[in-house]
Amino acid sequence: MFLARLPRDQWPRERLFSLGPEALSLCELLAILLHTGSRGMDVLELGGMLLEEFGDLTGLARAAPEEFLAVKGLGEAKVANLVAALELARRLRSESAKTGRNETWRSRVASWAENLATEEREFILALFLDRKGRILGEKQVSYGGLDGAFLDLPFLLRRAVRLDAAAMVLGHNHPDGTPEPSREDRELTLLLSRRLRMLDMELFGHFVLAGGRFVPVEVGEERRKAGESACSSG
Predict the structure, then answer these.
(1) pLDDT one-digit tens code per residue, 78-116
(2) Which carries the bigger pLDDT value, residue 69 or residue 58?
């Protein structure tokens, strides 16, 4: 798409004011942020090149300023506009995700999913709840890399005991965006459920966070019963 070939009323800025920002494509929104093109490339072409380089909005959000500066046609002014806009979006998500007095644990897990949608590392987070399911506390338990994160289970359980929690919710993100729980996810769910029952606590859920969604990790009825039996006999 070339800007010079479009009627003036179809230019990104004009379309934004006449139709609203929600009507614009990602390429058009980038063109407005970039303001001008570069030598031999108009602003819409430059926006399209950025999308080819980084893939989509998630890829743009994950990029560091140095990566943008390495793109031909992007100077410090353009990169500053782009990075500032992405940071404003991150801060908006963070503010909207702050735990409120009446926030439910499910809404908090939804906030986790949204905030971690663009993360390249795996994070493990825990919510500690009272007997009515109200949030007593929250803890980022661990973070790792693309291949996973290590969970310090004794540390997690000590934290729950100190807070006098009656239940817990666990969540971890899949940086590759795949929402399906792995075999290791199911094994961790079963293990944590058994350990919590030994402390007279309950696991309300373990969730995979991916692509802005949260998916419960199901261990299967037979395995769950086997875990409860082992717990009660042990």
Answers:
(1) 999 999 999 998 787 666 555 444 689 999 999 999 989
(2) 69
Which two tokens mark 25? 């494509």
- 10-46: b (≥16 Cβ within 10 Å) or e: ebbeebbeeeeeeebeebbbbbbbbeebbeeebbbbb
Residue type present at position 195: R
pTM above the 0.70 mark? no
Amino acid, single-letter form, for residue 224: R
Does domain 101-233 sit in CATH 3.40.140.10?
Answer: yes
* CATH top class, domain 3-95: mainly alpha
3-state secondary structure of 8: helix
| Contact assessment for residue 199 and residue 160, using Cβ atoms and an 8 Å cutoff | yes
Q: Both tokens of residue 14?
A: 């004009």
Block residue for tokens 């410090």: 76
Q: What is the pLDDT of residues 147-157, one digit of tens each?
A: 667 888 999 99
Q: How far apart are CA 7 and CA 91, in angstroms?
A: 36
- Separation of CA 152 from chain center: 22
205 token code pair = 């859920």
Domain spans in the chain, listed from the N-terminal domain onward? 3-95, 101-233
| Cα end-to-end distance, the chain, whole Å | 68
